[in-house]
Amino acid sequence: MPELPEVETVRRGLAPVMEGARFRKVEARRADLRFPLPKDFVKRLEGKAVQGLGRRAKYLLADLSSGEVLLMHLGMSGSFRVAHEAKEAVPGEFHHPRGAPGKHDHVVFHMTSGAVVTFNDPRRFGSMKLVPRAELEHDPLIRALGPEPLGNVFDAAMLARACRGRKTSLKAALSDQRVVAGLGNIYVCEALHRARLSPKRRAGTLATRTGAPRERAGRLVAAIRAVLHDAIRAGGSSLRDHRRTDGELGDFQHAFRVYDRAGEPCPTPGCRGTVRRIVQGARSTFYCPVCQK
DNA sequence: CCGCGGGCCTGAGAGC
DNA sequence: TGCTCTCAGGCCCGCG
Question: In the annotation, is A283 catalytic?
Fold first, then answer.
């Protein structure tokens, strides 16, 4: 499940082979991802250079020499793999260093760097879109996103403001990309456990300027940042689909404190609780009912 | 405006 | 190469 740390891991794998390179050849092997690929997708990419590869929440953003930005989302099961052409590329020719494309290899970028970048997505919840750079901030996919959790402006005051008056659960609030952008089910569970806050707590109870609510919001911000940093350092979490671009697994799934650990002892020092699984909004939540209040 | 729940999509794994 | 069922969840959308 690609969340912010997995997308950032992918970005770091792709940047060295895509930044400064041009699209020599683009294969759109299936156009029906979550949304149809843009009109003239191949034509709008081929020959263009990637000036930079960035990330916003769970979106990868390739800045193109044409003035457009290529937005890519991994959905539930998307992954990128990098391989390298064996020899000097012959103009007009292309091949697949790792053999024929697989069943779910939907888009292939042959870069002038010699890298062959393949987007694979069995469930096709991923998407690609081209947007003029000047319109990026107004794009419906980007416009509604809340603050970057690892950015400078995300702090307790901002989180408190976003939660103010909300009767929904903390779990639902943190999963809402308008509140904070980039968390998914796994890192919401992990951050709440680190902050010792119950996923069932009303979001609005984080929202005052002083006292216990502000202290809770501060703890939660610190926990979110810490778990994301730790996960990025580990190359993300590999449960079913996530791979680094070199095919290696991420390591952070071994460091989960509660996610997918129902029945195990709570890892909080001194806590005698047992991790429980409940369902919120038709999604699994894992938490410790003893130390998360 | 807000929150909830359905639907998209496929593979893995359980149960028979 | 067993078949069927359920579950996994990021995100959008419609409903109340």
Answer: yes
pLDDT per residue over A244-292, tens digit each? 899 888 899 899 999 989 999 999 999 999 999 888 888 889 999 999 9
Answer whether A78's CB lies under 8 Å from A120's CB: yes
Of A16, A34, A283, A289, the catalytic one is A283
For the whole model, what pTM was predicted? Answer: 0.95
**What pLDDT was estimated at residue A1?**
74
Is A48 one of the annotated active-site residues of the chain? no
The candidate with the shortest Cα–Cα distance to A194, out of A219, A169, A170, is A219
- CA–CA dist A124, A33 (Å, integer): 5
Q: Are residues A131 and A165 in the same domain?
A: no
- Protein residues contacting strand B, judged by Cβ under 7 Å: A 32, 76, 103-104, 122-125, 166-169, 172, 203, 240, 281-282
Q: Which domain holds residue A110?
A: 4-138
Q: Residue A73 phi/psi, 5° resolution?
A: -125, 135
Q: A125 CA to B8 C1', in Å? A: 8
Residue identified by tokens 């699994």 is: A284
Q: How distant is C1' of B8 from CA of A68, in Å?
A: 28
Are A63 and A170 found together in one domain?
no
Q: How far apart are CA A197 and CA A291, in angstroms?
A: 8
CA distance linking residue A278 with residue A262, whole number of Å: 9
Chain B: bases < 7 Å from a protein Cβ: 2-6, 8-12
Q: Mean of the per-residue pLDDT values for chain A?
A: 91
Is A9 found in the same domain as A91? yes
User: Rounded to an integer, what distance in angstroms lies between the CA atom of residue A115 and that of residue A117?
Assistant: 6
Nucleotide nearest to A7 (CA to C1'): C10
